[in-house]
Every structure is written in structure tokens, then in C-alpha cells.
From TrEMBL:
PANTHER family referenced in this protein's UniProt entry, alphabetically: INWARD RECTIFIER POTASSIUM CHANNEL, KIR6.3 PROTEIN
Source organism per UniProt: Anabas testudineus
Taxonomic superkingdom: Eukaryota
Keyword Transmembrane helix belongs to the record: yes
Keywords carried by this UniProt record: Ion channel, Ion transport, Membrane, Phosphoprotein, Potassium, Potassium transport, Transmembrane, Transmembrane helix, Transport, Voltage-gated channel
Catalytic activity: K(+)(in) = K(+)(out)
TM ranges: 73-94, 149-173
Residues of the Inward rectifier potassium channel C-terminal domain: 186-356
SUPFAM superfamilies in alphabetical order: E set domains, Voltage-gated potassium channels
A GO MF label: inward rectifier potassium channel activity
Primary residence: membrane
Listed InterPro entries: Ig_E-set (IPR014756), IRK_C (IPR041647), K_chnl_inward-rec_Kir (IPR016449), K_chnl_inward-rec_Kir_cyto (IPR013518), Kir_TM (IPR040445)
Signal peptide range in chain numbering: none
Name of protein: Potassium inwardly rectifying channel subfamily J member 11, like
Length: 436
């Protein structure tokens, strides 16, 4: 639909279709995994067994705005038809009570003045009701001063008609001017990636705005939803954790003048700190992206949402560049919006990388065998396929409280040298005398 309207180039849609076909089989097999936010941004939660349905009637306007278009149009039409039929019945009863519906001989003298002229049946009363409420006057029917009750009914119908017009038109306007309509032209990359950036692994995705009108005060929020178990054994199905977006200003604000790559550095304190390439496929988590801002043309606050499941997170890949400079202006190629390229990256998690760097720089007795250390349960590490339940090695930046002691043997002499583990560097002061 967007391509037909000229909002999206055909190349962009073709690229997205190619990405869907090139997805691995594991993502297709697990495509039925439940998620809270769909790729289109709608909330994927079904509310069942709600006993207090009357609460929705206390806020009729919001309830009508939240309804689907077919239901709103049905209520819009029914409200006018019911009001016209109700007041048509009242006008018909007034004419019947006053005797205006009795047949008269045209040759006789004219009878009494009717309450409403030219009302002879229920059909004529219905037409007069429509004329009164929508202010369409054809000049054939009008209220006379004969019946004060008719004047009262005329006033009541006018007031009620204005109320119905205001409510119905307000609902239609709010449905057409909803903030989520602006979010239709905000696009997110179908896949997120984890790649090294500035020496640290980072979680990244791309966001872009197809319109030329800006999103003022745009902010991006990242949340991780995962199932957790407390120390007491309580299962928390929805545990929300905020993720800090990488920004030198220490805020989540962005200037969405062109497609941006939003990144989150995976370090100590990050919910993704223990995530590795092997454990990614088995993780039960969902990363929700929320972009909020104010529409420049209308001043209405808007919100765009999407989410990424483990099947949609690519390990060891990076987004390609889509911005070029042509004729003294920047050009964006949306056909490459979701394209990625592989990069060299370790399959270890950020936590394991920190521990590995600490072991290598400290020169500990633990020797790495090819693939290094891999997490093997709580508090243990396995090396070469065998679990080691000893205490986990500390990172290189943590200073040891108790210094170690070693005995150095050289040329038949034994000398005790005290070593301080500071940054995993061994001081070898005094060993020059031994070499002599």
C-alpha cells in the first residue's frame, strides 16, 4: 500500500521480501513464539474474562475512538437513525393528539390550525424530523404557534441533535488524527544485530523516517522483557528492564534527520551482559523499542513501537551504510535499509570476554585451550570439556585483597618472592640479583 502511494520505493519492498525469504529455518520454525509487541507496533495481549464491562461505558468517547472503523461507522449511522425515528414518533403522536391526522373534505371549511403543517402520516413526520435535526428546510412543513408542546419538542431535538453531531464528528476526527497514523511512516529494521563497536559488543538496530516533516524531541527507549525466577521461587512472567542507549549526552534523545543506527553497549550492568552466540537461540527474552516524539506539523504526541526476539537478532553482523553525498546534499538509499554484512566477532558473551581478558593479562595458571572459557553453570567454568568448580577468576581491573606467594627455583637456589596482583601484572623486582 505504501508503495502504491509513493511513500516507499519499490526497491525497499523488494529488499524486505528478499530478507524474509533468506531467513534461516530456525526462525521459521519458532515464528509462533509469543511476543508482547508485534513488528507493526501493536500490543499482542488478549484480555479475557473481564467481569466489569461497565467500566468501558463510563468513558464512552474513548471507547468509541478505540473501536474499529466498521463499528464506529455503524454506531455513527445508528445514532442518527434512532434519533430521527424517535422524534418522528413524537411528532406523529403530537399530530394525532391534536387531530391533525383526521381526514377532511376539501369542500368543507378549513379546520383548526395544526401543530405542524403538512403532516398527514408517519412518513411525513419522519421527513419533518430529519429537516429539524439536520437543518434542512424545504418549506413545506413548519411548526405553528398553536401547540406549545411542539415548540418544546423542537427545542429538545435541536439540542440533542447538536450533541450527537459533536460527539460523532469528534470521534471521527480523533480516529483520523490518531498519533499512531504518523508512526506508519517510521520504519525499523526487521533484524537487530550484535557487533563490536569501539572494542565492546553492542546491540544495534536501525530506525528511519520516511516523511520530510520532523519528529520534535524524539526519544528512544529500550526494554528487555524476560521471564525471571526470584530467590524464593516466585515466577515473574513479565520482568521489564531498561537499557541505556549509547549517547554522549547521557540521554535517549535523537535527531531523526536521517536513518540512524541506535546502539547499546553491552557491558557490566547490561541485561545482555551474559548473552553469547550459543545461548542467544535459547534465550526467552524480547527487546522492545519505543520511539516517542511530537509531530512537527500537528503538534500531537506520537509513539512508534517494535520488538526483537532472539530469532531476529543476528550475531556478528553490521548494517551497511546507506547515506551518500550527491550534489551538495545527502541521499538515503532505502533499498539497503535492512542489509547487513558479517564481521569478525567472538562467540563469547561480554562477561566471558571480560573474564578471558583478565586471565590473559594476569598470566594466571589457567591456560586457554583454543576456545577459552565457557560458562558451565552457576559459579563454575569448564575448560576442555571438564567443569571446574573453583571460584571464578576476577576481572583484570579488580585488585586482590590477599597477595599470592610463589617459590622461584633457579641455579639450585630458592628464593621467596611476593607478588601483588594489580592489573594481573607480576612485579619481578629483585630477580636481577638471582641472575648474577
Amino acid at each position: 500500500m505504501l508503495a502504491r502511494k509513493g511513500l516507499l520505493p519499490d526497491g525497499f519492498l523488494l529488499t524486505r521480501l528478499a530478507e524474509d525469504q533468506n531467513q534461516p529455518n530456525r526462525s521459521r520454525a519458532k515464528s509462533q513464539r509469543a511476543r508482547f509487541i508485534t513488528k507493526t507496533g501493536s500490543c499482542n495481549v488478549a484480555h479475557k474474562n473481564i467481569r466489569e464491562q461497565g467500566r468501558f461505558l463510563q468513558d464512552v468517547f474513548t471507547t468509541m475512538v478505540d473501536l474499529k472503523w466498521q463499528h464506529s461507522l455503524l454506531i455513527f449511522t445508528s445514532a442518527f437513525l434512532c434519533s430521527w425515528m424517535l422524534f418522528a414518533m413524537i411528532w406523529w403522536l403530537l399530530a394525532f393528539a391534536h387531530g391533525d391526522l383526521e381526514p377532511r373534505d376539501p369542500n368543507d371549511e378549513p379546520g383548526p390550525i395544526p401543530c405542524v403543517t403538512a403532516i398527514h402520516s408517519f412518513t411525513s413526520a419522519f421527513l419533518f424530523s430529519i429537516e429539524v435535526q439536520v437543518t434542512i428546510g424545504f418549506g413545506g412543513r413548519m411548526v405553528t404557534e398553536e401547540c406549545p408542546a411542539a415548540i418544546t419538542v423542537l427545542i429538545i431535538q435541536n439540542i440533542l441533535g447538536l450533541i450527537i453531531n459533536a460527539v460523532m464528528l469528534g470521534c471521527v476526527f480523533m480516529k483520523t488524527a490518531q498519533a499512531n497514523r504518523r508512526a506508519e511512516t517510521l520504519i525499523f529494521s526487521r533484524n537487530a544485530v550484535i557487533a563490536p563497536r569501539n572494542g565492546r559488543p553492542a546491540f544495534m538496530f536501525r530506525v528511519g523516517d520516511l516523511r520530510k516533516s520532523m519528529i520534535i524531541s524524539a526519544t528512544v527507549q529500550l526494554q528487555v522483557i524476560r521471564r525471571t525466577v526470584t530467590a524464593e521461587g516466585e515466577v515473574i512472567p513479565v520482568c521489564q528492564l531498561d537499557i541505556q542507549v549509547e549517547n554522549p549526552l547521557r540521554s535517549n534523545g535523537i535527531f531523526l534527520v536521517s536513518p540512524l543506527i541506535i546502539s547499546h553497549t553491552i557491558e557490566r550492568g547490561s541485561p545482555l551482559y551474559e548473552l553469547s552466540a550459543q545461548s542467544l537461540a535459547n534465550e526467552d527474552l524480547e527487546i522492545i523499542v519505543i520511539l516517542e516524539g511530537v509531530v512537527e506539523t500537528t503538534g500531537i504526541s506520537m509513539q512508534a513501537r517494535t520488538s526483537y526476539t532472539p530469532e531476529e537478532i543476528l550475531w556478528g553482523r553490521r548494517f551497511v551504510s546507506i547515506i551518500t553525498e550527491e550534489d551538495a546534499r545527502y541521499s538515503v538509499d532505502y533499498s539497503k535499509f535492512g542489509n547487513t554484512v558479517p564481521v569478525r566477532m567472538s562467540s563469547l558473551s561480554a562477561k566471558e570476554l571480560d573474564q578471558t581478558r583478565g586471565v590473559q593479562e594476569g598470566g594466571s595458571d589457567v591456560h586457554l585451550q583454543g576456545w577459552g572459557l565457557v560458562r558451565a553453570g552457576r559459579g563454575g567454568f569448564r575448560r576442555g570439556g571438564r567443569a571446574c568448580e573453583s571460584s571464578a577468576p576476577q576481572p583484570w581491573y579488580i585488585q586482590s585483597e590477599k597477595p599470592d606467594k610463589e617459590v622461584v627455583e633457579k641455579k639450585g637456589q630458592k628464593k621467596t618472592v611476593q607478588l601483588e596482583v594489580i592489573g594481573r601484572q607480576t612485579e619481578e623486582d629483585g630477580l636481577g640479583d638471582m641472575s648474577d
